[in-house]
Amino acid sequence: MKVPEQPKANIGLVGHVDHGKTTLAKMLTGEYTDRHSEEIKRGISIRLGYADTAFYKCPNCEEPQAYSTSPDCPICGTQGEFLRAVSFVDSPGHETLMATMLSGAALMDGALLLIAANERCPQPQTKEHLMGLTIIGVEKIVVVQNKIDLVDEKEARKNHKEIQDFLKGTVAENAPIVPISAHHNINVDYLIMEIERNIPTRKFEEGRPPRMHVARSFDVNTPGTGPDRLVGGVIGGSLLQGHLQVGDEIEVKPGRQLELSGKSQWEDITTEVVSLRAGGMPREKVRPGGLIAIGTKLDPAMTKSDAMLGRVAGAPGTLPSVVDKLTVETQLLERVVGTEEELKVEDIRTNEPLMLSVGTSTTVGIVTSARENMADLTLKIPVAVEPGQRAALSRRIGGRWRLIGYGVVK
Ligand code: GDP
Ligand code: MG
Ligand code: ZN
User: Fold this and answer.
1) CA atoms lying within 13 Å on the CB side of residue 332
2) For a pocket test of ligand 1, which of 16, 23, 96 has the largest count of ligand atoms closer than 8 A to its C-beta?
3) Which end of the chain is more exposed for a tag (fewer CB within 10 A), N or C?
4) Distance between CA atoms of 324 and 356, rounded to whole angstroms?
5) What is the spatial distance between Cα 107 and Cα 101, in angstroms, rounded to a whole number?
6) Nearest CA to ligand 1 atom 11
7) Ligand nearest to the CA of 34
8) C-beta of 150 in contact with ligand 1 (< 6 A)
9) How many CB atoms lie within 10 A of CB 67?
C-alpha cells in the first residue's frame, strides 16, 4: 500500500500455520503479503512476505473505534489524524520453515503472535515462534486470539485461559491478548490501538554508516526484456542504522563465490544505489524503519529468487568481516520446543552439524570443538558477523532443524 511516509517499524506476524497471519496482513494492508513471490505461482509460499500500511485515529470517535487504516474514519467519515506507517513481515508458519521465521525476526521491532481460538493452545509452532522471538530478542509482543467467529463465548474464554497459562513465565507474559476475527474484521480497531501502545518506533541511529540485513532479493525484469532495457538487481531489507541515498556506493558481504585454481573464495561486491523504494513509493533517501528496496547495478541474475538473502549491505569498509569459522558462547534451552515430545536438549557434541541463524542469514556449521559453554564451528557458507552478535542454534532432530538455543559470537 502507498503510505504517507516511509514506514517507521517492522511488525512481525508469527504463529502456527493456518492461524491467520496472512489473512490479518491482508485485512491491515489490503495486500497479500506473498503476492510478489514467485512461489505463489507454483502454489507454495515459503518466503518472507511483507506489506505496508498506515494507522489513523479519528478525532471524533471513541477508542478503540477511532483507530483504523483509513485516512477517513470508516464510522463517521471525519479525516483521521495520521499516526504512523508500518511494515508487516509475514512469516511462514510451517515447521520446516523455522529458518525463514528466524531471518524475519532479525528485522522485527515487535511482533503479533497469532493463536487460533478454535484450537488447543499452544500448538507446536506457537511455542517455537515465541521461542524464536525470545532468542532473537524481539520482546514487544501483542498476542492475537484470532478466529473468534468460529467459537462461542464459553470456548473463547477457555481458549483465552489456555493462552494466559501458556504465556506465563515467557517474554510475552504481560502482553495484551486481543480477540479478533481477521477474516470478518472484528476488533481490528482494538488491535491497532494495542499495536500503537505496545510496539513503539525504535530510536534510530541515523548518524552511523548505513547497514542493512538483506531479507529478499529480486530480478524485476519481465522475461524477454531486451539487454538495453534490463534493470539491475534489487535487494530488500531494513536499515539497522544510517541513511542511504540514490547515488551512494554500497558493499555487499559475503559477495560472490569464485573458484580460483580449484579453491573456492568469496569476493566482496560493491555497487551503486540506483533507486530506492519504501512505503510503496520511490524515494531519494531512506532511513531505518520498515522495509526498503534498493535498486542496484548488480547483474539481476545474482539477485533473482532471494539469492542475496542473508547478506549484509552497507557503506564500503564498514561492514563486519566474512568468516567461515566461529566460536560461540552457548546458551541452550532445557527442552526442544516445537515437537510433541519436548525432548531434553543434550549438550553440543564435537562433529555434529548445527544450523546458525545470524541476522537474516542461515548457515550450517560443523562443531570442531565443544567445551562447557563454548563451541567452535566451521561453516559451510561463510557469514558476515561481528563479535557480540547472537546466532540462534538449531539441531537436526527427527529429520528437522529444531531450535535448541543461541550462541553469542566471540
Ligand atoms: P497463516 O498460515 O497463519 O498465514 O493463515 P492464513 O491467513 O493463510 O489463514 C488460514 C485459513 O484460516 C484461511 O483459510 C483463512 O481464510 C482462515 N482464517 C483466517 N482468519 C480467520 C478468521 O478470523 N476467521 C475464520 N473463520 N477464518 C479465518
Ligand atoms: Mg501465511
Ligand atoms: Zn470517526
Assistant:
1) 20
2) 23
3) C
4) 12
5) 10
6) 18
7) 2
8) yes
9) 23
